[in-house]
Amino acid sequence: MARRDALLRLHKSLVARGTALRKALAGELADLRFKTTDTGDSADAAFDAGSEEVSSQLAELEARELSQIERALARIKQGTYGSCELCQAKIPVARLNILPYSTTCVNCQREMEIDPSWGGGAGEDWEKVSTAESSFDDHREVNISDLEIDVSK
Which end of the chain is less congested by CB atoms within 10 angstroms, N or C? Predict the structure, then answer.
């Protein structure tokens, strides 16, 4: 009975977090959509662009979390919540308390991190991340006179 009570409490937690994420995402998306580009100078424009980039990345992370929460809620309706998708073992309540939308037990998750193809999943391609970051390290020389600057504003 204790596991059932814990799962019910986790359901309430997932619903509350999902609602909070929907509200936050709606506000962030509205801010990004209606952002005015009326900036004072190039430093302000650069700061605004950086802020918009951070905001959009945070919105993307929140959208991913919301997707995982909705998936967990669907698993609750199906009666499969709290079971590992790979080995069908019960996921410990302690793990679900920490990561309520977890779909794998600790052992299967560990195996997937060691070998991303384990368990039938494609895994994350961390090579893409490292090569994408290395493209920023391109140290080409830039001649200021070659840049086009709009000074009409």
Answer: N
Q: From CA 128, how far away is CA 107, in angstroms rounded?
A: 26
Higher pLDDT, 89 or 119: 89
Return the number of other C-beta atoms located less than 10 Å from residue 129's C-beta: 10
Q: Phi and psi dihedrals of 87, rounded to 5?
A: -110, -5
As its CATH architecture, domain 2-133 has: Up-down Bundle (1.20)
Q: Per-domain residue ranges for the chain? A: 2-133
pTM metric for this prediction: 0.62
Q: Tokens in use for 44?
A: 């302000």
Would you call 104 helix, strand, or coil by DSSP? Answer: coil
Question: Looking at residue 24, what is its pLDDT?
Answer: 87
